[in-house]
Design brief:
1273 residues, two-stranded antiparallel sheet, 61 helices, DNA binding, DNA polymerase V, nucleus
């Protein structure tokens, strides 16, 4: 019985931990030991232990005394019963013991079967199976007892001798004494809070009443009142136990069919009316009894025929008054009862009063005035939280009667939205449902519950969750109204709010509800954003709307989303403050700064901004085939183009007969901020389309699957409509270039379709033309020159005369292709300083397709941008460093030593506080980073182009009003050029020009100005060097790779690897000290990687030993510095790795290293250098040598044997003091002895040792040297 969920505590919130047995449920108190009655003293003790109420009172309560008296009476009656019974003399002793062990109730004459009362203890068990077995046994025994009792002729004799209690006028005169005893005990048992006593005893009572006709219903009702009477002396838990006991008794009766049978037998039976009146009277005693009492009554109503309900329930005493005062007291259970009775009888009744309209209909019930009348009933239903009151599912079933909702097709709805008409005509029932739901949400949800307490807000959200499974998608806007969304926003924006988790759960269920239905998803997104001004995620700091948008996976869902947001943009968008006459809009109004965009975020344009940004985002995670994706892209493009590029001069709607489509604009003029945002999103859409398209796919499919071509065609079509104009006025030059770009794109599209090899290049070039066309609208007057140059490049590419301007010479096709590509790349570079991200992405795509053909001059100009600085570094190296002049004419490109980039390419490290590479000085002692000399070696055209790039940077700085310095703009420009260089390295990994790129990037990385200007720039250069150069699968090859240049790079890098780190003593901050130290380690790592990479290139050329003398000399110089100077910081492990990878270098330097190790001034390096000698010996005398290798190894080692003996003598004579160092010496000597022994040179080796040296060897090495001498003998 679900009504018993509420009855576990006095007015407290209900717990979910409830036990159910045959429908009887209750929150149980702590387990109590069972009662056993064996003597008066034991009875008193057990009653004290088992019947104590949870009350804190120490005095014995009235109920406890009453229970003890009853227990004593039972024991006395049982004793008298045993004395009256005469057993046969031949009864065995075992039978007597069984009789004592199992107390029974039997007749004096022994004619009635025995009833074992110990079965009652099983009814208290927490195990449902034990309780059910106990009830079955109880009922079975009592049925036998009653059957035997009914067959007796002298019942008075039995009744007179077995009066267990005062049983007069209890209505059970036809029941056997045992049955009467059991009924009384069961009624008292349902008032116990022990374990599951209420469930077990109520189940037993229900089965007894249902199976034994002798038990009268009116007798049970009378006994429940008499035995469970609440006296004035009772308090707290005692009162609650009695009231709950009566409730369980009535519940047990409602579960039986007795009252139904009695009505069928006698339609004037008074028991049903009496039962109804008693239940209503009980419900009025405590608030927590009201709902379960009504639920019990509703169970009976479900079983009764409608005639019985009408004559016995509706006409019962007190029910009319109960209904009449329901709206005043807020009796939601009375409203529930009225609705259920009306549903049962099928018509209205005057007893309902004003609770239900007469005649009843859903439209009248959900009328605003009637719902307002019932407002108190709705508000007070929060009493049973967190459980939802039973009233609400009933109301929801009336409000939304159709359980199975017809699935709405997103494609059909999208089409209807696009045609600006309603879909199918709604049926009268659907219109009525919509009207009722609208009234219900406005009056109950928004008018009564949401403005009230948190509990009622919680109830409102629970009701909405009940509506969702039945709710048609078309009614979502009614449910998610402005006030509901504001409630969600307020709760989610305050995470410490009591409602936060409630609303969080609501949003989770709402997301699950829309997960597989795009129509629902669209309407939920629209409602959330429309009523939060597009800021739902922003205010709540969650990603609810974003995740919903990203979950679109179907074309129909995306189309519906786009059309819905388009309609919201046009119909419901906030009014703009921009002037409506676009022809009078000035450039000042249209040049929107970052501050203007930020300010619009808080203005009425915020919703439109969100719409413009969200429509393209629907494509991000969608996995569609090319044709479906193109259709979605077209719809996105149309929205952005119409709302961002154009305005209608005659009204807000036009029809294109060519496109067979209607286009609409907001009634108020769209702000310039929104127009700019539309153009930016359009640029991003086109850039994304370019990345996702391939020429082969485009050629093999229909010609119309090209978003760029479709956009240009769409643009031309709309411009030809007289009543449609661009959103801004263009100057004569801008308008001319705008038209030329359009015509050139159309020509490029035709050439692309007819081209083979260059199709990809033309494809990316077309998209660049479109990007420039949009940039002219965003920034009038700034891209005219770049657009003109790009048009010229296109003409030369197509090899056509200039048909756009008369008077030009028809010699554009005579230029060589490299010159054409150089001009194109220069144009691309001129676009980088002030271009947007989509423009840069398109520039990179174009560059990727032409970079294999660019000349060294263009590459050099790009590298000079990376090395360019507006001011010298703050910290310069004052040491006189040698300047390498061998790299000045690599690949026939002259680079002056005085240029800025050579500062970065210095071969020494600075000694300043930053600890980075210092700048070089030229031969005259002047700093090489002087700005006056930075551009020497550049011809006039190159100088002009470089000045153009920098002029764009300064112009951008001026337009920003000082927000960003020229220095920061230069850093951004360098980063963008680095992206192009990265593309070049990726596409041309084996070209000789890679060496030039490496050299410039390495210089830029070690330059102090780079370290001081931008950490991001340093990291980007480092990443390109590591990933695109050192770890590339290919490396520079060809005759153009000059050995002299490689030798120069090798020497510089070895010096970088040897340069020490000098810490500034005045710096106290550990953070400031760690930054330069970390940078120093990066520079050393760069130098080491560079050495290995350069040696790889040298090895690939297969130079002769004579040609490699300079390389050997460089390494010899480095090794000499390693031994001679403590300032040299070149790592032993680095040299060892070089000798390991290239044994020929170690073999050539072996004698030199042995000689250096033997010198006394090199003693500080001697032990460390032993690893180098060990590594060289490993290659001279390999462990797996054959006979041929044996002789050659022996010959080589013999030539160095004297120096090796001399080194051993020096080591053992002057053994290091540190234990670890001595161990290293012993290991080295062991290795030498093994090598010497393996090539049979032991005797020659020992001859090289003097007598003193041999004595020292025996002293320091012990058995190692003794064993070597044994090998000799």
């Amino acid at each position: 019985m679900g009504f018993l969920v509420e009855t576990s505590s006095m007015g407290k919130k209900r717990s979910a931990d409830q036990v159910q047995d045959g429908g009887f449920q209750e929150n149980r108190s702590a387990s109590k030991p069972p009662k056993k009655i064996k003597g008066d003293k034991k009875i008193i003790k057990k009653v004290h232990e088992g019947s104590a109420a949870p009350s804190t009172s120490t005095s014995m309560s009235f109920m406890e005394k009453k229970k003890k008296r009853k227990a004593l009476d039972k024991e006395r009656h049982r004793s008298s019963l045993v004395n009256l019974e005469q057993k046969s003399k031949n009864m065995s002793a075992d039978e007597r013991q069984d009789e004592i062990a199992a107390p029974t109730v039997s007749s004096k004459s022994g004619d009635l079967p025995e009833f074992h009362i110990n079965v009652f203890k099983d009814l208290v068990s927490s195990e449902a199976s034990v309780r059910e077995a106990g009830v079955e046994s109880l009922v079975k025994e009592l049925q036998e007892v009653q059957k035997a009792y009914d067959q007796l002729e002298k019942k008075d004799l039995v009744n007179g001798g077995l009066k267990l209690e005062a049983e007069k006028d209890d209505g059970l005169n036809d029941c056997a004494p045992s049955l009467r005893y059991a009924i009384r005990r069961l009624i008292r048992g349902v008032s116990s809070s022990r374990e599951c006593a209420r469930q077990g005893f109520a189940l037993g009572l229900a089965l007894l009443v249902d199976t034994i006709p002798s038990i009268k219903v009116d007798a049970i009702l009378k006994l429940s009142v008499d035995l469970l009477e609440v006296s004035s002396s009772m308090k707290g838990q005692e009162v609650k136990d009695c009231l709950l006991g009566r409730l369980f008794v009535y519940g047990a009766l409602s579960r039986t069919s007795r009252m139904v049978n009695e009505w069928l037998a006698d339609k004037s039976t008074p028991c049903i009316k009496e039962y109804t009146s008693i239940i209503l009277s009980l419900s009025a005693k405590k608030r927590y009894l009201q709902e379960p009492a009504v639920c019990i009554l509703l169970e009976l109503i479900e079983k009764l025929p409608s005639e019985a309900v009408l004559t016995h329930i509706v006409d019962s005493t007190g029910i009319a008054e109960w209904f009449e005062g329901a709206n005043v007291t807020g009796n939601s259970d009375a409203l529930l009862l009225a609705l259920k009775i009306h549903e049962k009888i099928g018509h209205s009744h005057p007893t309902f009063g004003r609770l239900l309209p007469d005649p009843f209909s859903p439209s009248k019930f959900f009328a605003a005035d009637h719902l307002s009348f019932l407002a108190n009933c709705f508000k007070e239903s929060t009493f049973c939280q967190p459980r939802v009151h039973s009233l609400w599912p009933m109301i929801v079933s009336i409000l939304l009667p159709e359980v199975v909702i017809q699935e709405e097709d997103a494609t059909v709805i999208s089409s209807s939205l696009k045609k600006h008409r309603k879909g199918r005509k709604s049926s009268p029932s659907e219109e009525e449902t919509s009207k009722n739901l609208q009234s219900f949400c406005e009056v109950v949800i928004e008018g009564s519950l949401l403005p009230s307490s948190h509990d009622r807000k919680h109830l409102a959200l629970d009701i909405l969750l009940l509506l969702l499974p039945r709710l048609p998608a078309s009614l979502v806007p009614i449910v998610l109204s402005y006030k509901v969304v504001q409630c969600l926003v307020d709760a989610l924006s305050t995470k410490n709010s009591w409602l936060f988790k409630v609303v969080q759960h609501f949003m989770k269920e709402l997301s699950n509800w829309v997960s597989k239905d795009d129509v629902r998803r669209v309407l939920v997104i629209v409602s959330l954003q429309k009523h939060s001004n597009g800021q739902f995620d922003l205010i709540t700091q969650m990603k609810t709307v974003k995740n919903l948008v990203m979950d679109f996976q179907t074309e129909s869902g995306a189309m519906l989303f786009i059309q819905s947001l388009t309609n919201m943009f046009v119909d419901d968008g906030p009014t703009s403050e921009e002037p409506s006459d676009q022809s009078q809009t000035t450039d000042e109004n249209l040049d929107i700064s970052t501050e203007d965009k930020d300010s619009s975020a808080g203005s009425s344009d915020f919703l439109k901004c969100w719409i413009v940004e969200s429509i393209p985002n629907v494509l991000k995670n969608m996995k569609l085939d090319s044709e479906a994706k193109f259709r979605v892209q077209k719809e996105v493009m149309k929205f952005l183009a119409v709302q961002g590029l154009f305005t209608a001069s005659l009204g807000s709607e036009i029809t294109s007969f060519e496109l067979q489509e209607k286009f609409r604009w907001p009634k108020s003029a769209t702000s310039s901020n929104i127009c700019k945002l539309c153009i930016e999103q359009l640029q991003s859409l086109l850039a994304m389309a370019l990345k996702g398209e391939t020429v082969n796919a485009l050629i093999n499919t229909a010609e119309n699957i090209d978003l760029g071509a479709y956009f240009v065609s769409f643009l031309s079509t709309l411009r030809n409509i007289p009543s449609v104009s661009l959103f801004r006025y263009l100057s004569e030059d801008d308008d001319k270039v705008f038209k030329e770009l359009q015509e050139m794109e159309i020509r490029a599209f035709r050439e692309e379709r007819n081209s083979g090899i260059n199709a990809q290049r033309l494809h990316s070039l077309r998209y660049l033309l479109i990007q420039l066309l949009l940039q002219i609208l965003l920034h009038p007057g700034e891209f005219v020159e770049a657009a003109s140059e790009l048009i010229i490049c296109c003409k030369k590419t197509f090899d056509i005369p200039d048909i756009l301007e008369s008077g030009d010479d028809d010699d554009s096709g005579t230029e060589e292709e490299p010159v054409l590509v150089d001009v194109l790349v220069d144009t691309l570079l001129s676009l980088l300083p002030q271009s947007s991200a989509p423009m840069r992405s398109t520039v990179e795509q174009v560059f990727k397709n032409v970079c294999s053909e660019i000349s060294g001059d263009v590459l050099d100009r790009m590298l000079r941008v990376i090395k360019k600085d507006l001011k010298p570094a703050r910290h310069q190296d004052v040491e006189n460093l040698e300047e390498d002049e061998d790299d000045e004419d690599f690949l026939a490109i002259e680079e002056e030593e005085g240029e800025m980039g050579d500062t970065a390419g210095s071969d020494g490290l600075t000694d300043d506080s930053e600890g980075v590479m210092g700048s070089e000085q030229n031969d005259d002692g002047e700093d090489s980073d002087g700005s006056e000399d930075s551009d020497e070696g550049m011809d006039d055209d190159a100088m002009f182009r470089m000045d153009t790039y920098l002029a764009q940077i300064f112009k951008e700085r001026k337009s920003q009003g000082g927000n960003e310095t020229a220095h920061s703009q230069l850093i951004l420009f360098k980063l963008r050029v680095l992206s192009l260089l990265e593309i070049y390295l990726h596409e041309n990994p084996g070209k000789p020009q890679v060496l030039m790129v490496y050299s410039s990037l390495a210089r830029a990385f070690v330059s102090p100005s780079t370290a001081e200007s931008s950490e991001q720039l340093s990291q980007r250069i480092w990443g390109i060097l590591q990933k695109k150069i050192f770890k590339a699968k290919e490396y520079p090859k060809g005759e153009l790779v000059q050995l002299s240049f490689l030798e120069s790079l090798l020497e510089k890098n070895l010096r970088w690897a040897s340069k020490p780190f000098k810490k500034k003593p005045t710096s106290n901050s550990s953070k400031k000290q760690s930054a330069p130290w970390n940078r120093h380690k990066l520079i050393v790592s760069l130098a080491q990687n560079s050495v290995h990479w350069i040696l790889k290139i040298i090895d690939a050329r297969n130079y002769s030993r004579a040609e490699l003398q300079k390389v050997i000399s460089i390494f010899q110089t480095v090794v000499a510095g390693y031994f001679d100077s403590k300032k040299s910081q070149i790592k032993t492990e680095f040299l060892k790795e070089i000798f390991q990878r290239r044994p020929w270098i170690g073999g050539v330097l072996f004698a030199f290293i042995l000689e250096k190790c033997s010198l006394e001034r090199s003693e500080f390096r001697r032990v460390d250098a032993l690893d180098l000698i060990t590594e060289i010996l490993r290659h001279i005398v390999p462990s797996d040598m054959n006979e041929q290798n044996h002789e050659s190894s022996k010959k080589i080692l013999k030539s160095h044997l004297n120096k090796l003996s001399h080194l051993i003598s020096g080591l053992v004579t002057n053994m290091p003091k540190k234990k670890s160092r001595r161990s290293d010496v012993r290991k080295f000597c062991t290795k030498v002895f093994q090598v010497v022994s393996s090539v049979n040179l032991t005797q020659s080796f020992l001859k090289g040792l003097s007598a003193d040296a041999q004595i020292a060897c025996e002293t320091q090495l012990g058995n190692l040297f003794v064993n070597l001498k044994k090998v000799k003998s």
